[in-house]
Amino acid sequence: MDKQNDQSRMDRIVSLAKRRGFIFQSSEIYGGLNGFWDYGPLGVSLKRNLKECWWHDMVAGHDELATSPGAPEPHEMTGLDCTIIMHPQVWKCSGHFDLFHDWMIDCRESKRRYRYDHLHGRWASHRGKKVFVVTDQSGDEALPHTLTRAQKFFGVRANKLAEIEWEGDLLPLAGNVTLAEALGPDAGEPGTLTEPREFNLMFETRIGALAGDDDDRAFLRPETAQGIFVNFKNVLDTSRVRVPFGIAQIGKSFRNEITPRNFTFRSREFEQMEIEFFCKPADSAAWYRYWRDRRWRWYLDLGLTEGRLQLREHAKDELSHYSVGTADIEYAFPFLAPGEFGELEGIAHRGDFDLRSHMEGKLVRKDGELVVETGDDGKPRHRGSGKDLSYFDDISRERYIPHVIEPSAGADRAVLAFLCDAYHEDEVPDEDGKPRSRTVLKLHPRLAPIKAAILPLVKKDGMPEVAIDLYRKLKPHMACQYDEKGSVGRRYARQDEAGTPWCLTIDGQTLADKTVTLRDRDSLVQSRLPIEECVEILRDKLR
Ligand code: ATP
To answer: In the chain, which end has fewer C-beta atoms inside a 10 angstrom radius, N or C?
Structure first.
């Protein structure tokens, strides 16, 4: 098996993340809470750096006077920070209230709950008994799981496994068998799985002390995008932006996922980095291609291995009812089977669906057209705001509803991908020249939580004083750490695990000629630099 796609590698990454304070389970001392994660001292810096890179590269550092490579023309970028709880009507018009659900299935016996579309199985028979053995495992784990389930169900000894006859390959449970014939993933007998039920993924809450009736029901946002659409007019009226322009937002989103899994990949509380880009309908296909390619490059420029990334255009039948085109940027996470990829970001051409929904009311597609959905009484099922969200181009004198391109990324999934990609195990010579195995995070310097470590070789001869002085000179410019504890080899190892790209060592020679050793994390090359030039050289490297 490809060593990279190895569950044990994932286990080691998770263990490093815990051991070095990148990611902890939420409320761990109370046994944890499934689907919720906390970022520790190193993790919070990594995630902040990632979000700052995104904000800088997409918004703050964007040159609105130039045409970006691949773009049809210059464009502007601006930002927003909206609330997590919004008017409930937002979710009714966006479609989330009616449509944002997964199918779930319960097991009456084990009391476990599964996502219907995650269940697969295969037919097994033994001495005239036949059952459809269901698993909730994916990838490499699925087949062995059905085997152990069947062994237990038929009561077959380990050395008689060949007696079990298997029919066909793994099939989705949905649409292939009746539930009476299905042996649930944690059940002792077939027929314990309930009929699938819809489950809305939005977390509900109530507003105010007198909350009681249905009108007080509010929701934690399942995406940040809607805050941007409902503020479209505010942004237009208060800043001098002109179409084409984008509004960016980073913030928490919440989804009551039925089966959170794969570390932080599928969480119930997570952070998104979303852009809604508004453009002229006639230019929208060109802008879609621009954003798709630009976002793809962003992950590569920050160091993800190209061979583990995939850009996947959705097939027509996979598109949401409003979408004209969607591409996913996906990463080959080590917890997935070889050949499988997990979504990091979706780039969707959403047409005028969102702005129209918030003007007119919830839309549905009828005979190829988007029309307001009506109830039995002929009135809109969910009434829109009635506000005019069209755009008037005062140069061409045209009025239109802009089309939207949406690059929607998950900050937690990106952190996880960068952690997995950066994780390496190799060998380095120790102080005596003997090979020593090391774990190193080869994070891009922009992402690294600590950019440089300043290490006095020994805790005497004036070395700590010189090192502390250098630390204080560097600190205003970048995150750095002073460390004098333990052998220098141990200190290098600690920094390698934290992903620190550079170590500066103050040694005997420093005191003689005012130079220090710069050790590069990845190449392991050690070079000498004048202590006076360290700040400038490291700032240059970071740029
Ligand atoms: P999936 O199919 O994996 O559930 P999605 O297609 O529903 O994802 P979007 O609604 O397109 O995801 O959300 C945009 C981005 O938000 C995703 O690409 C992902 O990075 C992030 N995201 C979505 N759901 C989760 C989650 N439960 N945990 C962590 N990140 C998430």
So the answer is: C
